[in-house]
Design goal:
The chain is of the alpha/beta class. The protein has twelve helices and eight strands. It folds into two domains: 239 residues, TIM Barrel, CATH 3.20.20; 28 residues. Helices cover 43% and strands 13% of the residues. It has an eight-stranded parallel β-barrel with strand order 1-2-3-4-5-6-7-8, surrounded by seven helices. Strand 6, helix 10 and strand 7 form a beta-alpha-beta unit. Helix 3 packs across helix 5, helix 6 crosses helix 7 and helix 9 runs parallel beside helix 10. The relative contact order is 0.11. The chain binds 3-methyl-2-oxobutanoic acid. 3-methyl-2-oxobutanoic acid (KIV) binds next to strand 6.
């Protein structure tokens, strides 16, 4: 075991609960591969989400629906091999838990055995309660996801802010309370009004992590490729760009192409 591995104290679901209890904010980012997960973990993130946004970011699909369980396991196992400190949460892909709780448990067992992830996340409220109970009974920590749940995009018809109307806001609050009562260790709230998100975070004792849900929650999550500015096409107001890797990477590649064409690469010192 390396010195680093000995020194690092792993983040667990209990760590996150203690952070909420102390009023410390939780940081969470997505990652889908070994190299970037290494950087994200080394930089000190608390939670890495192997999101089904891999369907968009890594595979170029329009929605999260096409990604398969095998593909999620491939991404998650690559991330797990990189991570020494963060809690690794793996998204359950569309179609692997909605059918019934037996199917949900079977999918989770594959994720846990084959990827080595530490917890799973799934979308929905009351309609997935039985699946959550079954997964928790197998000893696997579950994170809920409410608000704009991308696997339901064809039901919503748009990526606009959810739960602006009172009826949907009330249902969302009830679903959050149900997720807590069932035993989920946390909840992601996506693209809902900041006031409602804060109300949910105050109403439940488990950590609530927001994406486009304002600052009144217990932590924040963003898609890595969006916040690093690799993906420039997608720019909703909740994304803050912390880097412009699109320019950095294309600039470096353009320079390499020029150097090869001009026979400036490789030079003598770069040859054997
Ligand atoms: O798949 C994903 O990246 C997510 C985040 C947007 C929370 O679920």
């Amino acid at each position: 075991m390396s010195t680093y591995a000995q020194e690092v104290k792993r983040v667990t679901t209990h760590t996150l609960q203690e952070m909420k209890n102390r009023g410390e904010k939780i940081s969470m980012l997505t990652a889908y591969d070994y190299s970037l997960a290494t950087l994200v973990d080394t930089a000190g993130i608390d939670v890495i989400l192997v999101g089904d946004s891999a369907s968009n970011v890594m595979a170029g699909h329009e929605t999260t629906l096409p990604i398969t369980l095998d593909q999620m396991i491939y991404h998650a196992s690559s991330v797990v091999r990189a991570v020494k400190r963060a809690l690794v949460v793996v998204d359950m892909p569309f179609g692997t838990y909605q059918g019934n709780s037996t199917e949900a448990l079977r999918s989770v067992i594959r994720i846990m055995k084959e990827s080595g992830g530490h917890a799973v996340k799934l979308e929905g409220g009351q309609e997935v309660r039985e699946s959550i109970i079954r997964i928790l009974s197998a000893g696997v920590p579950v994170m809920g996801h409410l608000g704009l749940t991308p696997q339901s995009i064809y039901k919503f018809g748009t990526y606009a802010v959810r739960a602006k109307e009172e009826a949907e806001a009330t249902r969302l609050l009830e679903d959050a309370q149900m997720l807590e009562e069932t035993g989920c260790f946390g909840i992601v709230l996506e693209k809902i009004p900041a006031q409602l998100a804060q109300k949910v975070a105050e109403a439940v004792s488990i950590p609530v992590i927001g994406i486009g849900a304002g600052g009144g929650v217990d932590g924040q999550v963003l898609v890595l490729h969006d916040m690093l500015g690799i993906n420039q096409a997608f720019k909703p107001r909740f994304i803050r760009r912390y880097a412009d890797l699109h320019s950095v990477i294309t600039g470096a590649i353009e320079q390499y192409v020029t150097d090869v064409r001009n026979q400036d690469f490789p030079r003598e010192g770069e040859s054997y």
